[in-house]
Each structure stands twice: as C-alpha cells, then as structure tokens.
Design goal:
Elements: H1 3-20, H2 34-64, H3 78-81, H4 83-98, H5 101-110, H6 113-123, H7 126-143, H8 147-163, H9 167-178, H10 181-200, H11 202-220, H12 224-232, H13 237-260, H14 267-289, H15 293-307, H16 310-322, H17 328-340, H18 358-374, H19 376-397, H20 400-411, H21 414-458
C-alpha cells in the first residue's frame, strides 16, 4: 500500500472515530458507566479530533506545495510560484556542494583508478567489451574504406609479381621444405591420419567389401576343396574385411609410432624411421624431377592473364574476409538454386565469414591487457593519466554544468516540473500527513488530560 493511501485512510479513520466518540451520540455509552465513560470518551474524542485536525492541516500543507487545495490560491502552488528561486537554489547546491570540482577530485584521488580498471577487465566482462569496442571501431573504419580503389592499386603490383615468378625456384624451395626431416615426419603423419579416415569411411568399407566378395568368389570358383576351406575357416566377406581393417590400422599405428618417437629409441625403430623418411624424400625428389617447371609457369601465367580478374578477386576477398560481408558467389549460387526449384527451397542468409583480423586483434588485446594487469608500473601510469584527464575535464567543462541544469529545467513546463517533482517526493511527503494525525492524537489526548487534571486541582 502506498503512503498516500495510508495517509488518506488514517485521516478518514480519525474523522470517523472523532464523530463516533462524541459523548452524546457514541454507541459506547451503552457499555460503560456514565462517570468513567464520559471521561474515557472525552479522552478519545479529543484525541481523534486533534488527529483529524492535524491530518487535515498536513494534507493542506503537502498539497499546497504542488497545487491549490480546495481551490484556495493564497500562498499555495509553492513550487509553481517559486520556480525561479527554487531553480537558482538547485543550481547553486549542485555547483557549490554536490558537484563541486574540488569535492569530486578529492573523491577521485582517494580511489585507485587503475585497480578499478583491473577489476573491470577481470571480473566484469571488461575484456570482452574491449574486444567488441575495438572490433566495432575497425569495422567502421573498414566500412568506409574503398575496396575497389584498394584492389585497383594492388592488382598491377600483384600481376607484376606473378609475371616475375620463377617456378623452378619455387619448386626447389618446396622440395627443400618437404624433404626436411621435421616437416617430412609431420607430412607423413598427416597422410597416415587421412588414410585411416578414408579407410574407415562408409563408402570405402562398402567398396572394399564388394571387392573382397569378388575375390573370394573368383578364388572359390568351381573348386569344392576351396569352398570347404573357406567354409571351415569361416572366411566370410565381413570377416576378411575385419582382418584387413585390423592389419591396416595396426600398420598405420606402428608407422605413426615410428615417425613420432622422441628421445633415445631402439635401433630397429630408428632404422625403420630412417628408411621411411628416405623413401619419402626419394619419392618427392623423383616426382619433382618429372615436372617441367617452365611449362607449368607458362600455363599458369596464361590462365592467369586470360581468365583471372585479379582486381575483382582482391575486392571480393577484402569485402568478405576483412569487412565480413556476404560472399557474392555463394549468394548467387543459392539464388540460382532457388530459381531452379522455387517450390522446394528458399533463399537462406549466407553465413558470414569471420574477418581474418578478429583473432589476431583479440590476441593482441589480451596480451596487452595481461601485461597491464601484471605491471604495477603501467598501472601507476594509467592511474595518474585517468586522474589528470578527469581534472582537466572538470576544469574545462565544470562551468557548463549549471547552464546544462538550467537549460534542462527550463525545458519543462510548470505542469511537467510539478508532476516530475511530485512523482519523486510525494510518497515520502505523505508520511508527514500520517505523522500529523498520530502526533495530533497524542497532543489532543495529552492536552485533555492536562486540562482535566487542572480542573480537578482547581476544584
């Protein structure tokens, strides 16, 4: 229940009880003795009358702050009539007390701004918000960048570089990398992992089982003896496939173990690894020797010159991978598919590619934040920087605060200002009415008691 409702209920109850305890008409006279009842009723009656008067007086006072109670205009509507003086007092209070520059700086100096920043970054999702802020700033910057102009500037440079490519040097460099023991081990391991995945794929298993069935049928032929051997050993298609898978997986596992072994190893494993790497190295060198580097280079440059628009490629790459826009090629493909089968599909939103700079930017920011959190020297510098910034800001703009407040208050009409203030304080002011009724009742009963006592003494 709001205080206004409580205050109104208290006033109504006081008036009702004041009328109900009048000695001449009170129903309580039927239940109490005349002498004691008369004193008791008078005691209550004086209290409730005083409570009613106190409640009415305070209701009038509270209402007079904002409007005309009972239509009485004399010294009411205090807020409206004294608006200018109240506005000046508010501005003076804010300027000289509440937002005094020295008071603000005193509070700021007491705080460790750098520690507050560390707390924000570590425990209040500050790190994530810094990521978002930096991303938004760069996205806005890239959005204003002319990708067509960039592509036109870079295209001639890239064309010249491609024309000057030496395929023989590139091939030699690739062979050198591939035959390096460190990279060879990694490449062979990747090949083994890929091979194992291919072997376990449903399509490969189905093809192997089909081929095994053909081989078993060819082996069995019309020979009863061979059929008996296969039946005795229970060599079904599935069992032979299982044996094959098991053997291949074991070989892959053993080879991976040989390639990835570290430290001091057995001579047998070391020799096996050496032979495997030598075989791979010979394979790479022999394969490279069969390539006609110059022919490959000529074909590549011809295709590049005739069919490849490098400026468009750079622009599209920039728009998709830097700006994070929709890939036009994917969007066009979806639209073609929809146009071909409009009844079986709908155009879906193209999944945007995460800009290539997101991850490096986040990593850079995290490194700088971690460095700041661990460095008292940096924190001390930031603390001084923030405090100096606030002090300079106050010195520059503190005089504008009163004008901003005045401008804001002057935009409000009298009715709007009254409604605004009343909405903020009215409920608290209603306690004055309740207290007025309570204090009035206490005062009325007390004064009646005093008058009764004096009357008894004088008589």
């Amino acid at each position: 229940m709001q205080n206004k409702t409580k205050a109104t209920a208290t006033l109504a109850a006081s008036a009702f009880l004041a009328a109900g305890t009048l000695p001449g008409i009170s129903p309580l006279t039927n239940f109490i003795t005349p002498q004691a009842g008369g004193i008791f009723l008078n005691f209550l009656n004086h209290g409730f009358i005083a409570a009613t008067i106190g409640g009415l007086a305070d209701w009038f006072a509270v209402t007079a702050l904002f409007r005309k109670p009972l239509g009485i205009s004399y010294r009411t509507e205090i807020l409206r009539r004294n608006r200018g003086r109240i506005t000046d007092a508010i501005i003076e209070f804010v300027e000289k007390d509440l937002l005094n520059a020295e008071n603000i700086m005193e509070t700021v100096r007491e705080e460790n701004a750098a520690q507050l920043l560390v707390e924000y970054l570590e425990n209040r999702q500050g790190r994530e918000r810094v990521h978002e802020l930096c991303r938004d700033v760069l996205k806005e910057l890239f959005a204003k960048t002319d990708s067509a102009e960039i592509s036109q500037s870079l295209a001639p440079i890239l064309k010249d570089e491609i024309k000057n490519l030496d395929a023989k040097k590139i091939l030699d460099a690739a062979v050198k990398v591939l035959t390096n023991e460190r990279y060879s081990r990694r490449i062979l391991t990747i090949f083994l992992e890929i091979g194992e995945k291919i072997l376990k794929s449903p399509h490969m298993q189905e093809a192997l089982q089909k081929k095994i069935a053909e081989l078993l049928d060819a082996y069995e032929g019309d020979s009863t003896g061979r059929a008996l051997v296969l039946s005795t050993l229970n060599l079904t298609d599935e069992k032979v496939l299982g044996i094959l898978n098991e053997n291949v997986e074991q070989k892959i596992s053993e080879t991976s173990a040989v390639l990835n072994v570290k430290g001091i190893v057995e001579a047998e494993k070391a020799e096996a690894a050496k032979n495997l790497l030598e075989s791979f190295t010979n394979f790479v060198k022999n394969s490279a020797a069969t390539f006609d580097a110059q022919k490959i280079q000529d074909e590549f440059q011809k295709i590049f010159a005739d069919k490849f628009n490098i400026a468009d490629y750079i622009k599209t790459w920039f728009d998709v991978n830097v700006r994070g826009e929709d890939d036009p090629a994917v969007l066009e493909k979806i639209q073609r598919q929809y146009a071909a089968n409009p009844q079986h599909g709908r155009i879906m939103k193209v999944e945007k590619v995460t800009p290539v700079w997101y991850s490096p930017l986040d990593k850079f920011i995290d490194e700088k934040i971690d460095e700041f959190i661990k460095s008292p020297v940096q924190q001390n510098k930031v603390d001084k920087l923030i405090k100096n910034f606030v002090e300079n800001l106050l010195a520059q703009y503190h005089d504008q605060i009163p004008e901003l407040i005045r401008e804001r208050l002057e935009k409000l009409s009298d009715d709007e200002l009254t409604e605004f203030v009343e909405g903020k304080v009215s409920d608290d002011l209603q306690m004055i009415r309740i207290n007025g009724s309570v204090c009035g009742a206490a005062a009325g009963m007390f004064l009646y008691g005093v008058s009764l006592l004096v009357e008894k003494i004088m008589s």
